[in-house]
Design goal:
The structure holds two protein chains of two kinds. Chain A is an all-alpha fold. Chain A contains four helices and no strands. In chain A, helix 1 packs across helix 4 (69-80). Chain B contains 28 helices and 20 strands. In chain B, the strands form four sheets. Chain B has a seven-stranded mixed β-sheet. In chain B, strand 4 (62-63) and strand 5 (69-77) form a beta hairpin. The chains are: A mainly alpha, B alpha+beta.
Chain lengths: 88, 658
């Protein structure tokens, strides 16, 4: 399963409480769509760290890395070194 | 403290005694020391007494000398001695030494204007037999509750909603808009209650009902404007605050039974306890909750204060299972869905107080609202500071000063904190910007509403309901935020679900020196720059009390009172499976069963979930419980049978004992 699909499954399970009918594009901003609240971001961090075995520094805890399915996938790949990405 | 109930219908004869007794039975916990009923043509009054002042002759309902006025009264008039002296000078003759009788005589002279003379916490119903009209009134800050409902031409009123439901003709139905209110503002916006057709009399209001109809009015309001910055030196405000707090404490210690105090270890209750010590040489008993989880526990600070003041300190240890076990009773008393479990430990605390033989406690409630103690005020100030210089990289760093006590702080990432706390107020009006992030975040929990509830709640959008309930607010930004807090959460949650209802569940009266209206007026006139100096909350209070408190207590940063939420219930499968099962959810029709199931699963998997999930879970569970207790399983015979009730019959003027 692609990182995108795994992140999507996580978002549907975690923030849509299993409701598959809510439309969500890979590029949609979680903040602008009102999908996450101020602690929701910490849930995303927990997911990324535990699922992909990586650790986020406070500097990496920014919307550029985590605010959409596409951004998370790009960030994860960059951290894993499997694809060119732009994690700071 | 007491419970009152009554009935008015000008077109009818006297109400049935049985109905008044049923109402009384459901209020018995508020006043187990004596019971009385007044009956006349078209009117019935009932009273359950917790005797605190004038133990011998203070029975109610109480009449004036010629029996033309009768009152049932819940609360205290703290300046009753001064009012009484003045009334005696003007020729009034008293037959008791109670504060209740002072209201009667003052009303004889001034009518509704009498309310402006009272310094106290009260709700009462006053029957004017000559004019055949009933006056309902409630204290300025909303400390004591008063609810009413209509059935045709009949009016029913009571200290608690359950007593209204003793009349089986009233429809018992949870108001879908109230659920929408709770899942946005954390409470039904006044005068709405959790139940359709039941209204509360708002704080600082009176309602007069007669054969000709009804009229209501407001007799007090918050001061409109703060002093300008240079009106007085800082010292003036610090000394003025201390003087007023000392005087408020002095008159609130008036009681014919011993008075104790809550002492959580926080600044506000420490101030209250220190002020009692200053006003009285009697031994002082203090009471507090302790938690095993260090995220919530404040025992260490309690020890500092109890040693400093030399109090006799009693504690109740609260664990997660205690909260789960008490929760149904908590909902029975609160009569509203709750998003937090925090009332439950306070329910256990009032039981401890009662077990120790106390009926009265002073607490520090109100200080956070009037002296800008909550983080929501700092959050708003930082937001405005950031917006004044949008390109600044340094200003947003202040966000990290917020919520230092949270294990999972939303301020850990400045970039995210900026995105969330800087979000626009929409859909709420700009005047409510300070509270819009909280309301929008909470409203996210409406994702669990069923389609049916969503539709039934949608007649008027939440933003319009807020505008109608709050109107225009003060002139300075901090004052505006405080005003919103004082008009919503303070009466609608802090003083009710965490205050009156949890205290009176065990027949204990709370008194709140910070909510003496003179203190409130004074604090809201302090220039905003001194109320929240930089980001130092309650700066002036710390300065005013500098000589009366130990340094560690004076220096500490606010840690709001909280309790563990959803996780209390996740080990208690019985409660969850009974109330959150698909069948139970289908029965009420409020929530979407599949999503609720997934929420419970998520909370079990990741107990460190965010506010929204925790609030949603507790809110859903409590709404389900409320439905079970008040709609499905409520029976008018739920109350105990009443004996030893003093009866006053208006026609016979006879007072036999049953």
């Amino acid at each position: 399963m692609s990182v995108e699909q795994e992140v999507r499954d996580f978002v549907v399970r975690n923030f849509f409480y299993g409701d598959q009918s809510v439309p969500l594009a890979d590029a949609d901003s979680f903040i602008e769509r009102g999908i996450i609240d101020s602690t929701g971001v910490l849930e995303i961090v927990h997911f990324v760290e535990s699922r992909y075995g990586i650790v986020l520094s406070d500097d990496e805890l920014v919307p550029e890395n985590l605010d959409s399915i596409a951004r998370i996938a790009r960030f994860v790949r960059a951290k894993q070194g499997t694809a060119g990405g732009a994690a700071p | 403290m007491c419970g009152l109930a009554g009935w008015f219908d000008p077109a009818r004869g006297a109400p049935s005694e049985a109905r008044l007794l049923r109402m009384l039975g459901l209020l018995r916990h508020r006043g187990p020391d004596g019971f009385g009923i007044y009956r006349g043509k078209g009117i019935g009054l009932a009273h359950a007494r917790l005797s605190i002042i004038d133990l011998e002759t203070g029975q109610q309902p109480m009449g004036n000398e010629d029996g033309s006025l009768w009152i049932v009264f819940n609360g205290e008039i703290f300046n009753y001695l001064e009012l009484r002296q003045d009334l005696v000078r003007r020729g009034h003759r008293f037959s008791s030494t109670s504060d209740t009788e002072v209201i009667l005589h003052l009303y004889e002279d001034l009518g509704v204007e009498a309310l402006t003379r009272l310094n106290g916490q009260f709700a009462f119903a006053l029957w004017d037999a000559r004019k055949r009209e009933i006056l309902l009134a409630r204290d300025r800050m909303g400390i004591r509750p008063l609810f009413y409902a209509r059935h045709g031409e009949e009016w029913l009123f009571a200290s608690e909603i359950k007593a209204l439901f003793a009349d089986e003709r009233l429809t018992r139905e949870i108001d879908p808009v109230a659920l929408d209110d709770v899942f946005t503002f954390w409470l039904p916006l006044s005068p709405r209650t959790a139940f359709a057709g039941v209204r509360e009399l708002p704080p600082a209001h009176w309602l007069r009902i007669s054969e000709g109809g009804w009229v209501s009015g407001r007799y007090w309001d918050l001061p409109a404007q703060a002093d300008p910055r240079d009106a007085h030196p800082e010292k003036f405000y610090a000394e003025g605050l201390l003087d007023l707090l000392v005087d408020a404490t002095r008159i609130q210690l008036r009681s014919d039974v011993p008075v104790g105090a809550y002492l959580s270890g926080g600044l506000d209750s420490s101030v209250t306890a220190a002020l009692i010590r200053r006003c009285s040489t009697s031994p002082l008993s203090t009471f507090a909750v302790t938690f095993r989880d260090p995220e919530f526990d404040e025992s260490a600070k309690q020890r500092i204060m109890t040693e400093f003041l030399g109090t006799d300190h009693e504690t109740v240890a609260c664990e997660e299972r205690n909260i789960a076990e008490a929760f149904a009773e908590v909902i029975w008393h609160a009569e509203v869905p709750l998003l937090r479990t925090a009332p439950a430990p306070l329910f256990l605390l009032s039981r401890l107080v009662r077990e120790n033989g106390f009926k009265v406690v002073l607490t520090g409630e109100g200080a956070d609202e009037i002296l800008a103690g909550y983080d929501i005020f700092k959050e708003d100030k930082i937001r405005r500071f950031m917006e004044a210089c949008p390109g600044s990289r340094l200003r947003p760093l202040l966000l990290q000063r917020l919520y230092p006590y949270l294990r999972l702080s939303p301020a850990r990432s400045v970039a995210y904190a900026r995105a969330f706390f800087g979000a626009p107020a929409a859909p709420f009006a700009e005047a409510y910007r300070s509270h819009a992030p909280r309301w929008n975040m909470t409203a996210g929990a409406k994702v669990f509403f069923s389609e049916d509830l969503r539709q039934r709640a949608s007649a008027e959008p939440a933003a319009e309901r807020a505008a109608r309930a709050l109107g225009s607010t003060g002139t300075d930004a901090l004052g505006r935020a405080q005003e919103i807090e004082i008009r919503t959460l303070l009466p609608g949650y802090i003083l009710s679900s965490q205050g009156d209802r949890m205290l009176l569940a065990h027949s204990v009266e709370g008194r709140f020196p910070f909510l003496d209206h003179r203190v409130v007026e004074f604090c809201l006139r302090i220039p905003p720059v001194l109320r929240l100096k930089a980001l130092r909350e309650k700066y002036l209070l710390r300065r005013a009390l500098a000589g009366l408190l130990p340094a560690p207590i004076l220096r500490m940063v606010k840690q709001p009172y909280r309790a563990p939420d959803a996780r209390c219930f996740l080990g208690e499968d019985a409660l969850v499976s009974e109330f959150l099962s698909p069948a139970s959810l289908a029965e009420t029709g409020f929530f979407d069963p599949a999503r609720v199931e997934r929420l419970a699963e998520k909370l079990r998997e990741a107990p460190a979930s965010g506010f929204k999930d925790n609030m949603a879970f507790v809110g859903i569970l409590s709404a389900q419980l409320l439905h079970r207790l008040f709609v499905r399983d409520f029976s008018v015979g739920n109350g105990p049978e009443m004996h030893e009730v003093r009866l006053v019959d208006a026609d016979a003027r006879e007072q036999p004992r049953r």
